[in-house]
Design goal:
Strand order of the largest sheet: 1-2
Structural class: mainly alpha
Order of helices and strands: HHHHHHEE
Shape: globular
Number of helices: 6
Helix content: 40-55%
Strand content: 5-15%
Low-confidence stretches: 1-13
Distance between the termini: 25 Å
Number of strands: 2
Radius of gyration: 16 Å
Mean pLDDT: 88
Amino acid sequence: MMDDTDGARSRAGEAYSLDERRKILLEHRYFLAADEVCAKWKITRYRLRIWKRELRYEYLIGDLAEMTVVALRNGSGTIPMIIEHLDYLNHARYSEAKVIAILEGLRIAGIAATEQGRWFCDPSHSRSGTSFIF
């Protein structure tokens, strides 16, 4: 196991990759308080602060697919609602075709699903406390 300098241990037997650290920080940015992130991923507040500094958290935002997941998890289920939510998050207007293409990619990846014209995050993809949201 890897020791953090304050005595806590990271994930059993392995370090988090750069991509995993980025996903953890995005979960923190969009959904979870620091204490929740630390408990979920078994890291210390100190480790979280280090990652924030290393990955320039103040400038960290999700890509278009990740922000679409944020929109879905925040209840935006129709294409117009998702477009508005994306505009709110990054001040850019996306076409309906672009958003549908992103949603279809998320559906193929098992992250999103649609039912009766409404999109939502597939609950089987991310189980709270056991897998990445993104």
